[in-house]
Amino acid sequence: MPRTSPVPPRVSAPDLPPVLEPHEPTRGADLLAASLELAGTADLAHATVEQCVLRADAESVDLTGATLLDVELPDPRIASLRLRTSSIRRLRITGGRIGTLDLSEARVAELELRDVRIDYLNLGAARAEDVDVVRCTIRTLDLPRAELTRVRFQETRSDELDPRGLRAKDLDLRGLDALSYLDVQSLRGATLSSLQVQQLAAVMAAGLGILVTD
Length: 214
Fold this sequence. Notes:
Layout: E1 21-23, E2 30-32, E3 34-43, E4 48-62, E5 67-74, E6 77-82, E7 87-94, E8 97-102, E9 107-114, E10 117-122, E11 127-134, E12 137-142, E13 147-154, E14 156-162, E15 167-172, E16 176-181, E17 190-191, H1 194-207
Parallel strand pairs: 1-3, 2-4, 3-4, 4-5, 4-6, 5-7, 6-8, 7-9, 8-10, 9-11, 10-12, 11-13, 12-14, 13-15, 14-16, 15-17
């Protein structure tokens, strides 16, 4: 059979147990089947978080270098969510608002962002596969030097996208309404709609050194 291109992400819901035990956030913690209520400044850096639900109304949540497996984050209200250098498998974030979502240098497999408002999403130098972004509003989307595989945007809006140095395979941008791209030449490996290509034609021509004038 012919290969469908782009290949859609393979995203499944987190595998959560029916009963979760309440726990307090602790740096370097080893958490299994836990429910956490995060407020103020929560430090979970370098923690292992498996089969957990995180509920957050917080100024800062630090998961730098953490390992997340089968985690759900429903309706968060977080000014800064740091997941830099983290290792993620099956994380779902639904609803809510996040000021800064820092996934730079993270290793991501199966991430779902649905109905989330994000001011700044940083995937710089991240390696991410099987990511589905659905009905989100992302003011600034940074992808410099990221490696993206089977990543899809659906009904999502962004003011600015920075793809400089991006390496992509099966990156589906047809459902992303972006006002500006900082470097369209870095979109190699992405799929765009014909309308998007028409809208970017002048920028693409300028990048190739073509003068367009009537």
